[in-house]
Design brief:
The chain is α/β, with parallel strands linked by helices. The chain contains 13 helices and 10 strands. Helix 3 links the parallel strand 1 and strand 2. The longest helix has 16 residues.
């Protein structure tokens, strides 16, 4: 941030610096977290006043940004991932390039207490969730509106020759489809604060680090085979009112201070070379194997969603 101010003072005119010192708006998905201390640090170092706008899950946010691209709801965006990035690029809503900020592995999480109390065998792979022993136990996210859901949809197309057949079996086994990750994890999942009715949820390999009891024991576990590696990006929006200040927000999201905060605030892996919390080695290791992220998602997205919707009838 000091470098930005120095460049402004040394290389720009006073009027140009004045343009930077304006209000700037950052639109994010609902899972974005920044502490008051970090927010104050950004504002003190740049002179900009940062306003946050949350716009739903990554899919819902992307749709809103496409619909409002001529008069965007913010100057800068954080949270579009590699499943929805092609939509952003196709619709030309980003000024310049998307900047990689963090990553996470989309994996199923299980409530260990439920499995122990019901003497239920923990599956070794998500393909087993169609087994009758897991009937009415699983909640996933709608891939039409949720990047988590779309990530897993891609994984099924990478794993099965005919994933639609597997989806039908999963539906018949009582799976619930929630609109967003927040709904699925914090409301429906029995292993989270919401204490819902579903002990299996589509979430992330890092999520168990947030579910440790007062004695330091993990209460949930992730199935870490054949997960989807999800990359999240930031970018300046086309037609932004304050693109100069927007650039300082992107820079701040890449800063050491913000990157160090991400594991414990949003449970994602930073892209910068910063130390991870010690508990992550035990409770939040990345996936053992990942699949699906190398598929041509833009070319197949509409077809995949059409097949999913024909099974579940959940199109937005």
């Amino acid at each position: 941030m000091k470098r930005i101010l120095s460049v402004c003072l040394l290389a720009l005119t006073l009027s140009s610096c004045a343009v930077q010192n304006k209000a700037v708006t950052l639109v994010t998905h609902d899972s974005f977290v920044i502490s008051d201390e970090l927010l104050k640090e950004y504002e003190n170092e740049t002179g900009n006043r940062l306003t946050l706008v949350k716009a739903g899950d990554a899919g819902a946010m992307t749709s809103k940004l496409v619909l409002t691209k001529d008069s965007p709801i913010a100057d800068v965006m954080y949270g579009i991932d590699n499943t929805f990035a092609p939509v952003a690029i196709k619709n030309n809503i980003i000024d310049g390039s998307l900047v990689w900020i963090d990553y996470a592995d989309v994996c199923f999480n299980l409530d260990l207490k439920y499995f122990k109390e019901h003497n239920l065998v923990i599956p070794t792979h998500w393909k087993q969730l169609t087994d009758p022993k897991y009937k009415n136990l699983t909640v996933i996210e709608n891939p039409n509106t949720s990047s988590t859901g779309l990530a897993f949809l891609a994984s099924t197309y990478a794993y099965f020759d005919s994933p639609k057949t597997w989806w039908k079996k999963l539906k018949n086994n009582g799976v619930k489809v929630s609109a967003s990750w927040e709904d699925a994890y914090y409301t429906d999942f029995s292993g989270s604060a919401g204490r819902g009715n579903y002990p299996i949820v589509l979430s992330y390999s890092s999520s168990p680090a947030d579910e440790v009891d007062k004695d330091g024991n993990q209460t949930t576990v992730a199935l870490r085979k054949d997960c989807f590696r999800q990359n999240e990006y930031a970018g300046i929006l086309k037609n932004a009112k304050n693109p100069i200040a927007a650039k300082t927000v992107v820079d701040f999201l890449q800063s050491t201070a913000f990157q160090e905060s991400m594991p414990e605030s949003m449970y994602v892996y930073p892209t910068a070379d910063v130390a991870l919390p010690k508990s992550w080695e035990k409770f939040a290791p990345p996936a053992e194997t990942t699949i699906g992220q190398d598929l041509d998602i833009p070319a197949n997205r509409d077809h995949w969603l059409a097949e999913f919707n024909s099974v579940f009838d959940v199109a937005p």
